[in-house]
Design brief:
By secondary structure, the chain is of the alpha+beta class. Helix content is 25%, strand content 28%. It has an eight-stranded mixed beta sheet, covered by helices on one side. The longest helix is centred in the last third of the chain and has 18 residues. The protein is globular.
């Protein structure tokens, strides 16, 4: 059976996640001693979204960040370039409210996912057709699905999920480390 690609060949992804945190330099978000900063808190979500669509190994990484007075990144922008010119444009922040939405663009249309971290709807736009909205009526709060998956794996005696493998998690962390490396941001625990 041939794979259906309603929006054609996916070429571009855009995902943003950011929120306005209060000023608490001793709290986790703004504290370098505690691994604070936008990339490791808010940034994991758009980076993971890009990984889901394009994979964990971009060919090139361009990034910039605003390092605030506590020494952590308060906001960042990243462009990941993949094979055949595929691109992910990602933004994150802990001191700015962003749109918190994602777009996936293909050669025949696009998908819009509002509030992509806890989306209940997505809209499909195919060239020449009326938009189609998909709705998920399940109710969940916080990390419900993650907790469910951990419980399922434990009950089955599994040490690893097939939804997101240990290898994928490690590759995403390596990518986050490469991005931070471009900014010269190291944490005290890294020596």
């Amino acid at each position: 059976m041939a794979e259906r690609r309603l929006i054609g060949d996916v070429q571009l992804l855009k995902a943003d996640f950011g929120f306005r945190s209060g000023w608490n330099p001793l709290g986790r978000l703004l504290n370098r001693e505690l691994g604070g900063g936008a990339l490791l808190d808010a940034g994991i979500y758009p980076v993971s979204f890009a990984s889901m669509v394009f994979g964990t190994e971009p060919e090139k990484i361009w990034s910039t960040a605003h390092i605030g007075e506590t020494g952590v990144d308060e906001q960042f922008s990243v462009i990941l370039s993949y094979e055949s010119g595929k691109t992910a444009s990602l933004n994150g922040a802990i001191r700015l409210g962003l749109t918190n939405e994602a777009y996936i663009y293909g050669t025949k249309g696009h998908i819009h996912v509002p509030s992509f971290l806890n989306a209940t709807t997505a809209s499909l736009y195919v060239d020449g057709a009326e938009p189609v909205q998909v709705t998920d009526d399940r109710q969940a709060k916080g990390y419900h699905y993650e907790a469910y998956e951990v419980g399922r794996c434990l009950l089955e005696g599994r040490l690893e999920s097939d939804v997101i493998s240990l290898d994928e998690s490690l590759e995403i962390m390596k990518l986050l480390d490469q991005i931070r490396g471009q900014w010269g941001l190291r944490y005290p625990s890294e020596g």
